[in-house]
Amino acid sequence: MHMSGDANNGAELFSTLELDTIGEIMNISMGSAATAASTLLDNKVTITTPIVNVLAVDDFEIQQLEPAVAVQIKYVEGITGSNILMLSQKDVRTLLAQMMQTEIADDFVIDELAESAMCELMNQMMGSSATVLSCFLGRTINISTPTTLPINAIEDFKAEYFPQKYIMTITFTITITDIMESEFVSVMDIDLSREIIEVSLNFDKGDEEEQPPMAPPSAAPAPPPAPTPPPAAPAPSMPAAPQVPVAAPPPPPVAYEQQPYPQQQPYPPPQYYPQQPYPAYNYAPPPQHGYGAPAPVPENPIMVKEFDYNDFGAGGGVQEMPANIDLVMNVPVVVTVELGRTKRKIKEILEFGQGTIVELDKQAGSQVDVIVNGQLIARGDVVVVDDNFSIRITEILKSRDSLTML
After folding, report:
1. What domain range is 384 assigned to?
2. Fewest C-beta in 10 Å: which of 181, 187, 198, 225?
3. What is the CATH number of the domain that holds 161?
4. Domain annotation covers residue 326
């Protein structure tokens, strides 16, 4: 990073403590960003060694990063300002190659796909950084979607995106294990840097400011205590309550002499009687659980009643044609006339050719079948009408017969 002699003018804007504070905060927040990058890149990423400088915009140069790529992140909640990350195009190619697990040629050009992948990487990194920053500042912090900024000429870039006289630059070292070790720069507005520092310092000592200052040991002795105020005048006396006579205590309980219980007479000795065996023809085991044998249930005769069928009349159960039958009268159906059928194996069918004779299951002169939508409904004879084959219906089959013939 190019620094001129005017770079130390930051001492007039920030104290050493403030610069150390912003450096420590950004170090920890970018450490969290490195953790998020490790997940996306599938490799360990380390971001350390922040170097904080306050530079005049005219003295800011990026010669060591050219050709460079800039990504802008705006803080939309919690704090106000923008943070612009600048990386070399070579480092961007390495990051994208690791992220997409593919090889990228040396003549890499940042196209729309590369910009989208780069913005996603920065969105994950800076989103994690904003989460840690919100813990330091004690408030919710949200960022906008990162956007890439073209850097055609550095002077035009500074005039458009750095309107203030001074900027704060924080240089980090990024390391990907066995892949790369390089630097990138974070450029922050002076107002944003000051807001982060002030909120962080005030948040750290917020509890101390609420406590009143204590007097030093060499201070003057405390003033004597204020004199005790005279006792207040007694309140006007109230009339005394009438005296209530106190009841006499109850007399002590009378002690009664306990009379001895009469001596119990001994029970006569039990008499045992010889148990008579049950007769062989009348032996039954004693009932268990206090229940006797179930009593026989008398059998009631089953009443059978003949079913009374309804009389459908002479029509044999055929109902009249419904009135809305006209709704289906115009529905077309497929009528097929089948001359006969046969079964053959696939081997025999593959041997078919011109002149092959296929024998059907009907004899010559037999009636043909009339099939409607796959169901056999009638039979008839084949006739010729106006040089066209036709069928003369000779037999209408019932539904049960037609199903049997299929």
Report:
1. 332-352+359-405
2. 225
3. 3.40.1550.10
4. no
Q: Are residues 194 and 336 in the same domain?
A: no
Neighbours of 198 (CB within 10 A): 13
Q: Does 149 map to a domain? A: yes
Cα dihedral 155, 157, 159, 164 sign: negative
Joined together, the tokens standing for residue 338 give 């089948």
As a whole number of angstroms, the distance between CA 138 and CA 132 comes to 10
The span from the CA of 95 to the CA of 101, in Å, is 10
48: Cβ contacts below 8 Å, ≥ 6 apart: 27, 31, 172, 173, 175
Query: How high is the pLDDT of residue 211?
Result: 47
Strand 375-385 to strand 368-372: parallel, antiparallel, or no bridges (unpaired)? antiparallel
Q: What pLDDT does 218 receive?
A: 47
φ, ψ for residue 273 (rounded to 5)? -115, 140
What length does the chain have?
406
Neighbour count for residue 239 (Cβ, 10 Å)? 5
Structure tokens at 212: 């009143």
How would residue 378 be classed by pLDDT, with cut points 50, 70 and 90? very high
CATH number of the CATH domain containing 384: 2.30.330.10
Q: pLDDT digit string (tens) for 134-162?
A: 887 888 888 888 888 888 888 888 888 88
> What is the mean pLDDT of the segment spanning 322-339?
81
Residue 378 pairs with which residues in a beta bridge?
A: 370, 396
Closest CA to 142 of 157, 158, 131, 153: 131
Residue 211 in any domain: the answer is no
Average pLDDT over residues 286-305: 59
- Mean per-residue pLDDT, 198-206: 68
79 in a domain, yes or no? Answer: yes
Asked if residue 337 has pLDDT above 50, the reply is yes
pLDDT in tens, 1-16: 333 334 445 557 888 8
pLDDT single digits (tens) 224-236: 555 565 555 555 5
Number of structural domains found in the chain: 2
Of 85, 201, 194, the residue nearest 143 (C-alpha) = 85
DSSP state of 315: T
Give residue-wise pLDDT tens across range 258-275.
555 555 555 566 555 555
